[in-house]
């Protein structure tokens, strides 16, 4: 009898210990409670039926049940949250795809005839008031190139000049080196140029400013004298650029003495270069002293803005600060 009782108690004690250990593991081991918990309960019950429900068996059953419930709730919560997130993500993705589909359909770009009938019939034939408006209509504000101030007066720390609605301003107005440009491209039949901001051919006309610093002039010439700088432009700068028939004329530009150099350059209807020196250097924010300018003005063809219009805007509206 004693031998029989010992044989029955030993297995049950081992199962009780296993139930307890498994029950504890079901609580502390992340996520495994839903598996280890039932195992701990079963081991505890089996151990109790084979022997007696002692402390190990009861503790194993309780911890196993707790582990199963706790981690069952946790796993269920994760699953429900995941499903909700998937639905939300699906909704968000649908919204993104819908938005992308809408944005992927660009606004129709006006035809050349509708957008820029800007030959000699005049700008009035265009349904836009400015080149910027035409660009914005086709591509949207976010697509507008940085540095374009179409239709606005040109304002720099050194001077101001009137703007034109179908011209754009590029370059660096903040350092007194803007370039006011009229862009162009060839019409559909290839016979007549039309003026448009979408110029694939180049600038049809331009007025650009090249600032001359005191440091550069002194290093190169040892002086800031107007005649010296103008002589360099006449004898070296222009010939090196392919200019011929150079004619020098003393003028006043914005009330300051200047030298005008008219010349011929292949491919241009007219080209002129002006050299002007400031009475006092203009100091920029970075400490650079601007003491003069070389100004380039040209027109490729006699279009809406004829050569005299280009030059007269420079002569009539340039104001030094």
General description of the model:
- By secondary structure, this protein is of the alpha+beta class.
- The chain folds into two domains: 2-102; 112-320, no CATH class.
- Helix content is 44%, strand content 25%.
- Strands 3, 4, 5, 6, 7, 8, 9 and 10 form an eight-stranded antiparallel sheet that branches. It has a three-stranded antiparallel sheet with strand order 1-2-11.
- Strand 1 (154-155) and strand 2 form a beta hairpin.
Keywords for this structure?
321 residues, alpha+beta, 2 domains, 8-stranded antiparallel beta sheet, 3-stranded antiparallel beta sheet, 8 helices, 11 strands, 44% helix, rod-shaped, disordered N terminus
Secondary structure elements and their pairing?
Elements: H1 2-28, H2 33-50, H3 55-103, H4 112-115, H5 131-139, E1 154-155, E2 159-161, E3 168-172, E4 177-186, E5 193-195, E6 202-213, H6 214-221, H7 226-240, E7 244-253, E8 256-264, E9 270-283, E10 289-299, H8 307-317, E11 319-320
Antiparallel strand pairs: 1-2, 2-11, 3-4, 4-5, 4-6, 6-10, 7-8, 8-9, 9-10
Helix pairs in contact: 1-2, 1-3, 2-3
């Amino acid at each position: 009898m004693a031998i029989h009782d010992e044989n029955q108690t030993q297995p049950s004690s081992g199962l009780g210990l296993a139930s307890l250990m498994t029950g504890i593991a079901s609580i502390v081991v992340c996520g495994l409670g839903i598996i280890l918990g039932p195992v701990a309960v079963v081991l505890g019950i089996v151990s109790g039926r084979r022997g007696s429900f002692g402390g190990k068996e009861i503790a194993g059953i309780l911890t196993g049940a707790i582990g199963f419930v706790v981690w069952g709730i946790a796993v269920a919560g994760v699953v429900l949250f995941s499903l909700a997130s998937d639905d939300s993500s699906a909704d968000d993705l649908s919204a993104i795809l819908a938005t992308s589909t809408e944005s992927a359909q660009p606004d129709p770009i006006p035809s050349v005839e509708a957008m820029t009938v800007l030959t000699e019939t005049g700008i009035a034939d265009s349904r836009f008031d400015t080149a910027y408006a035409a660009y914005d209509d086709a591509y949207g504000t976010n697509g507008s190139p940085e540095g374009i101030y179409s239709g606005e007066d040109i304002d720099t720390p050194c001077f101001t000049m009137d703007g034109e609605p179908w011209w754009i301003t590029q370059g660096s107005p903040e350092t007194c080196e803007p370039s006011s440009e009229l862009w162009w491209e060839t019409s559909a039949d290839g016979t007549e140029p039309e003026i448009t901001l979408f110029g694939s051919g180049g600038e049809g006309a331009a007025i650009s400013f090249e600032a001359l610093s005191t440091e550069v002039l002194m290093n190169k010439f040892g002086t800031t004298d107007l005649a010296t700088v103008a002589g360099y432009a006449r004898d070296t700068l222009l010939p090196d650029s392919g200019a011929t028939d150079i004619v020098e004329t003393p003028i006043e530009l914005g009330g300051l003495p200047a030298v005008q150099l008219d010349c011929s350059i292949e491919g241009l209807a007219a080209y002129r270069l002006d050299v002007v020196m400031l009475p006092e250097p203009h100091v920029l924010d970075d400490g650079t002293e601007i003491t003069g300018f070389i100004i380039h003005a040209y027109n490729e063809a006699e279009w809406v803005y004829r050569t005299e219009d280009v030059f007269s805007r420079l002569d009539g509206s340039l104001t030094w600060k």
